Amino acid sequence: MKVHCLHTRRSIMKFALVRNDSNRFREGLLDALVQTCIQKGDQLVNKTDEANYVLNFTTIENPKSVRRKCRSLFVITFICDDTRLQEEDEIKASSYNSLVRSLSNLLIYITPYLQTYFTTPEAGFYDIFFNPEEVYERMKPIISSNFATDNRFETDLPERYCNGSEITEQICKYGKVLDELGVLPVPFPLKGFLSETQLRQLYKIYGITGASYGNLSARERIPELGKDTFWMTGRGVDKSNLRKIGKDILLVKDFDYQKHEAIISMPQDFEPKARVSVDAVEHSMIYKSFPEVGAILHAHAWIDGVLCTRQNYPCGTIELSKEVLELLRRTDDPSSAAVGLKNHGLTITGKNLQEIFEKFSHKLIREVQMFA
């Protein structure tokens, strides 16, 4: 089955600049980046409200955020440090700290010797030597992406499923197994570094709540709700302690690709702040395209030798979902396969969760391979 979805590539990308400090080292790099963006056909504007993306230049000591009204404004934060040298582990820690505090979609840290480190919200971390063209090419998958992470709730979950099913019990079971395998990394300790206002903004942008990364889903055909209904873990919930239907585990009955939103079948007493995992769009496309797939696992882990996406697309985007579909089609058996998400982790399919864990769990490597 072919999935038809909207991909709205903007004809002209507009960008704005935000400066939170000033130094000669940074200004030279800034000029080169701005000229490259313009040469690529993007237009510099004065107001962030008019922009598709923002180049935010700030400092490691006080990484300031850009005020944004919607998720579709992408923020690329640059820290240009010409005053000190740091070990790579220190750069990694301070970069992720700065990314979270600046509420950015990507953080780029440039050293005095022009070594350039990229950090993503999913903890992707890699480096290249500074070249404005190459920096732009690594920004491009993010600034041109289309998120599909909204939720639409309908309180029509059949009563017989309000306390779950054998399928949701399997999801709970294997959530605990993921924790035992050590592939449910806990995000950055957000509450120690962000105000309540920043935490709310972070949840709005990323859906990060500080519980655990990774997700599981499993198909359960419920004819009165749709052809491709499936259960999936909630956004930011602790996958090792899944309990409540309508909060920890949600039923996706369909996906509106035009409006970029998952349609969720909820019990009457559902948690209104609950959201399904941002990867629901990817899982929906997989279930619709491959009827034999019965379960999907996303883990922040790695398996040697897997096919991998070419770009570091953000989770929850149409672009990442489409590339994962294409990779699965290239495998010997899309119904039971593992593919890599560049600098992020894995998507693994199977006829059920038991098959996925029996076939792939012993191959999982906890540290994700990172490359430019």
Tell me the number of helical segments per DSSP (H or I, 4 or more residues long): 8
Shape: globular
- CATH architect. name of the largest domain: 3-Layer(aba) Sandwich
* Order of helical and strand elements: EHEEEHEEEHEHHEEEEHEHEEH
What's the CATH first level of the largest domain? Alpha Beta
Note the beta-strand portion: 15-25%
Query: Mean pLDDT score, rounded?
Result: 89
Distance between the termini: 34 Å
CATH H-tier superfamily of the largest domain: Class II aldolase/adducin N-terminal domain
- The assigned structural class equals alpha/beta
Number of strands: 15
Number of domains: 2
The residue fraction in helices comes out at 25-40%
In quaternary terms, these chains amount to single chain
Report the radius of gyration as a whole number of Å.
21 Å
Low-confidence stretches: 1-9
Largest sheet: 8 strands, mixed
Main sheet strand line-up? 8-12-11-10-9-13-15-14
CATH topology of the largest domain, which one?
L-fuculose-1-phosphate Aldolase
